[in-house]
Amino acid sequence: MILTLSPVQLGLPPCVVSFPRIMETDIVIESFRPKPSVAVVDHRYQVVTPGDVITTDTGFMRGHGTYVEDDVIKSSVAGVVERVNRLICVRPLRTRYNGDIGDVVVGRIKEIGQKRWKVDTFSRLDSILMLSSVNLPGGVLRRKSAEDELMMREYFAEGDLISAEVQSLFSDGSLSLHTRSLKYGKLTRGCMVTVPPVLVKRRKTHFHTLPCGASVILGNNGYIWIGPIAPEEQPMETWEEPESKKQPVTREERETIARLRNCIIALSDRSMSLYDTSILYTYDASLNYPVKDLLKPDVVEEITRHARDL
Question: Would you state the pLDDT for residue 13?
Answer without folding.
Answer: 57
